[in-house]
C-alpha cells in the first residue's frame, strides 16, 4: 500500500515551499533557455532533405539474379520464411555459366521472390549468401499501396532495372 | 422567510458505488498496449487490474521452429528499447551450453554496446516519464543524446532499433577507430547532459511533488513479488547481477551499484526509482570509459560451427537488462532447434505489482506509478 501521512504544513514551511519551487523552476528554465540558440539541429526536413544512411545499413533487399546459384541457403536461414525460390537443372548441352566470382551456375532460377511485407530485415540471409549476390541496399523509400506490390519478383525486368540505382559500386 | 425543512441526509445510508474505467490499450501514458481496468472512488484508485496479451507474438513457440541463430531477431523484438541486452542474454545462454570461447575484443565490445544500450533505454525512460508528468522538452533533449547512440549502432549493425548484432561466438561487425574516438569524445558531453537533465527534472519542486511519497514499493513487497532491476534497487536493496553474479566479463570492471536512499521522500517511492536510473547512467559511462581504455586488437568472431547443435540438457541464465533481470530457460534435445525456451521477464513481474501499488493513488499519480516501473509491453507479452 502506498498511503503516506504527510507532515503538517507550518507557516515557515509554506514560504519555504514557494521559495524552493521558484528557485528550482528558475534553474530549469535557465537550462531550457540555453537550447534556444546555439544548439545544432538533429532533425532532417525529410522530403526535401534526404538522409544518407550508413554503408551497411539494412534496408530493402536486392538480389542480383545473374550471380545467384540457387543454393537455397538464404531461404533456409530466413527466420520468417519470406524467400521463395524455385530452380530447375540446367541442360547439359546449354552453354556453361559462371558468376562474377567464378562459381559455376548449375541450376536455372525460375523463381526468386521475396515478400518484403513479411521480411524482418534481420540480415541473416545476406550473411549466408556464398556469392554475395543477395544484399541489403540503403534504399528506404518503398512504401506501396497494396500488400501484393510488396512481393518483389527479382527475375522481372522492372525489378532488375533497380540494379544501377541500388547496388553499391554497380 | 422561507422555512428550511431539515433533510434527513445520512451519509452512512447513502448508496455509493465504485466507478469502473478503462485505461488503455491505446492510452498514451501506458507505454504501449497495456490495458488497466481501474475501479475508482471519486478520483482515488481503489482497484487496478492489468490485462495483457495485446502484443503477444508467440515468441517462445516460434523458437521451437527456428535454428539458434534465427532466434536472435526474435529476442530483439521482445524488449525493443533495449534490444542489445535482450540478445546478449540469449547468446550467452547458447554459448554457455556450447562452451564457445569468445575473443577478447568481442567481449569488451559486447559490454560496451550493452552499457550504451542501457543509457539509451534510461534516456528513453527519462523522456517519457517527464511526458507522463506533463513536461515535454526533456523528451526532446533525451532523444538528442539517444540519437548519437542509435546512429553508432546503425553504423555497426545496420539497424536502428532491432539490431541482430551480437552473434553466437562474438559480434557481427568490428568497430573502427574513428567510431571509438567519436564515442570517447562524446562521453564527457553526455555526462554533462545527464547532470543537466537531473537538475532540470529531478530537482524540480513540481516533479518532486508529483513523485516523492507516491506509490511506495517497500523492500518486503519488492521481495514478495520478485522485483528486479531499478525497481528493486529503488527500494534500497543492493542487488545487481553485474556485481553479484558477473557474466560476460563484468567482473573486470569497476562500478558502483546505485540504490534508492529516500532522499526526497520515503524509501521506494517513484522518485527513488527515477533517481536509480539517472545515476545508473553515470555508472554505465564509467564502464564504457574502462572498455575504451582496455579494448584490444583482434578478431571479433570466435569459432562456431555452421549448424549449431548444443548437447542434450537444459540451462537457465539471467542477465541484468535496463528494466531488470531477463532470464532464458533453454531446453535442448540435441537437434538444431531448441526443444523449449521460456523467457523470464522482469517487466511481467513489475506489471503484476500494479494492483498492489495502485490502491490509494489519484489517477494522475497512477500514471506516474506506471511510468516509474518502466515496462515495455513487448517483453511483458513476448
Notable traits:
A: 170 residues; alpha+beta; Alpha-Beta Plaits; two-stranded antiparallel sheet; 5 helices; B: 382 residues; Cytochrome-c3 Hydrogenase, chain B; three-stranded antiparallel sheet; globular
Count of domains of chain B: 1
Assembly state (oligomeric): heterodimer
The CATH C-level name of chain B is Mainly Alpha
Number of separate strands of chain B: 8
Low-confidence region ranges of chain A? none
The secondary structure category of chain B is: alpha+beta
**Number of DSSP E strands of chain A:** 7
The biggest beta sheet of chain A, please? 3 strands, antiparallel
CATH H-tier superfamily of chain B: Cytochrome-c3 Hydrogenase, chain B
Please explain how this structure is put together.
The complex is a heterodimer of chains A (170) and B (382). Chain A has a domain at 61-166: Alpha-Beta Plaits (2-Layer Sandwich). The longest helix of chain A is centred in the N-terminal third of the chain and has 23 residues, at 11-33. Chain A has helices spanning 11-33, 73-77, 124-128, 157-160, 163-166; strands spanning 61-63, 83-89, 97-98, 104-105, 107-115, 134-136, 151-153. Chain A is of the alpha+beta class and 170 residues long. Chain A is built from five helices and seven strands. The model of chain A has no long low-confidence stretch (mean pLDDT 81). Chain B is α+β, with helices and mostly antiparallel strands and 382 residues long. Chain B has one domain (19-381): Cytochrome-c3 Hydrogenase, chain B (Orthogonal Bundle). Chain B is 47% helix and 12% strand. In chain B, the strands form three sheets. In chain B, strands 1-2-3 form a three-stranded antiparallel beta sheet. A three-stranded antiparallel beta sheet of chain B has the order 6-7-8. In chain B, β6 (313-321) and β7 (324-332) form a beta hairpin. In chain B, α5 packs antiparallel against α6 (177-202) and α6 (177-202) packs antiparallel against α11 (270-294). Chain B starts with 18 loop residues before the first strand and ends with a helix. The model of chain B has no long low-confidence stretch (mean pLDDT 87). Classes of the chains: A alpha+beta (170), B alpha+beta (382).
Amino acid at each position: 500500500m502506498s498511503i503516506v501521512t504527510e507532515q503538517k504544513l507550518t507557516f515557515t514551511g509554506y514560504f519555504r515551499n514557494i521559495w524552493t519551487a521558484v528557485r528550482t523552476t528558475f534553474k530549469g528554465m535557465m537550462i531550457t533557455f540555453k537550447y534556444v540558440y546555439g544548439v545544432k539541429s538533429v532533425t532532417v526536413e525529410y522530403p526535401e532533405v534526404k538522409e544518407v544512411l550508413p554503408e551497411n545499413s539494412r534496408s530493402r533487399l536486392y538480389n542480383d539474379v545473374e550471380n545467384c546459384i540457387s543454393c537455397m541457403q538464404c531461404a533456409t536461414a530466413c527466420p520468417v520464411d519470406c524467400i521463395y525460390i524455385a530452380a530447375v537443372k540446367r541442360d547439359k548441352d546449354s552453354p556453361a555459366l559462371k558468376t562474377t566470382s567464378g562459381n559455376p551456375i548449375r541450376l536455372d532460377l525460375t523463381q526468386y521472390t521475396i515478400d518484403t511485407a513479411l521480411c524482418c530485415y534481420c540480415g541473416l540471409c545476406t550473411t549466408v549468401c556464398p556469392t554475395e549476390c543477395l544484399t541489403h541496399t540503403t534504399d528506404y523509400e518503398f512504401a506501396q499501396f497494396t500488400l501484393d506490390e510488396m512481393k518483389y519478383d527479382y527475375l522481372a525486368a522492372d525489378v532488375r532495372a533497380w540494379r544501377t540505382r541500388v547496388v553499391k559500386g554497380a | 422567510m422561507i422555512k428550511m425543512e431539515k433533510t434527513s441526509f445520512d451519509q452512512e445510508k447513502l448508496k455509493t458505488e465504485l466507478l469502473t474505467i478503462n485505461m488503455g490499450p491505446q492510452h498514451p501514458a501506458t507505454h504501449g498496449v497495456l490495458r488497466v481496468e481501474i475501479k475508482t472512488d471519486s478520483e482515488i484508485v481503489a482497484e487496478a487490474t492489468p490485462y495483457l496479451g495485446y502484443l503477444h507474438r508467440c515468441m517462445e513457440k516460434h523458437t521451437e521452429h527456428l535454428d539458434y541463430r534465427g532466434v536472435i531477431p526474435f529476442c530483439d523484438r521482445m524488449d525493443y528499447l533495449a534490444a542489445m541486452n535482450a540478445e546478449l542474454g540469449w547468446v550467452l545462454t547458447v554459448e554457455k551450453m556450447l562452451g564457445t570461447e569468445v575473443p577478447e575484443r568481442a567481449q569488451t565490445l559486447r559490454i560496451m554496446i550493452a552499457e550504451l544500450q542501457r543509457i539509451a533505454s534510461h534516456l528513453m525512460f527519462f523522456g517519457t516519464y517527464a511526458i507522463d508528468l506533463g513536461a515535454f522538452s526533456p523528451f526532446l533533449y533525451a532523444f538528442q543524446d539517444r540519437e548519437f547512440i542509435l546512429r553508432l549502432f546503425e553504423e555497426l549493425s545496420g539497424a536502428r532499433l532491432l539490431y541482430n548484432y551480437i552473434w553466437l561466438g562474438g559480434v557481427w561487425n568490428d568497430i573502427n577507430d574513428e567510431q571509438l574516438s567519436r564515442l570517447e569524445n562524446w562521453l564527457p558531453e553526455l555526462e554533462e547532459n545527464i547532470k543537466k537533465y537531473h537538475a532540470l527534472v529531478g530537482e524540480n519542486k513540481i516533479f518532486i511533488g508529483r513523485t516523492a511519497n507516491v506509490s511506495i514499493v517497500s523492500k518486503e513487497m519488492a521481495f514478495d513479488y520478485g522485483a528486479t532491476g531499478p525497481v528493486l534497487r529503488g527500494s534500497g536493496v543492493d542487488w545487481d547481477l553485474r556485481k553479484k553474479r558477473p557474466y560476460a566479463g563484468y567482473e573486470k570492471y569497476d562500478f558502483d551499484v546505485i540504490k534508492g536512499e529516500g532522499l526526497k521522500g520515503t524509501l521506494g517511492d517513484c522518485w527513488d526509482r527515477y533517481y536509480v536510473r539517472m545515476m545508473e547512467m553515470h555508472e554505465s559511462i564509467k564502464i564504457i570509459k574502462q572498455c575504451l581504455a582496455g579494448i584490444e586488437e583482434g578478431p571479433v568472431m570466435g569459432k562456431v560451427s555452421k549448424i549449431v547443435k548444443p548437447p542434450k540438457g537444459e540451462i537457465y541464465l539471467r542477465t541484468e537488462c535496463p528494466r531488470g533481470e531477463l532470464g532464458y530457460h533453454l531446453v535442448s534435445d540435441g537437434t538444431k532447434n531448441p526443444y523449449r525456451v521460456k523467457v523470464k521477464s522482469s517487466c511481467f513481474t513489475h506489471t503484476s505489482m500494479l494492483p498492489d501499488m495502485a490502491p490509494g493513488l489519484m489517477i494522475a499519480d497512477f500514471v506516474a506509478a506506471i511510468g516509474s516501473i518502466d515496462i515495455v509491453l513487448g517483453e511483458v507479452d513476448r
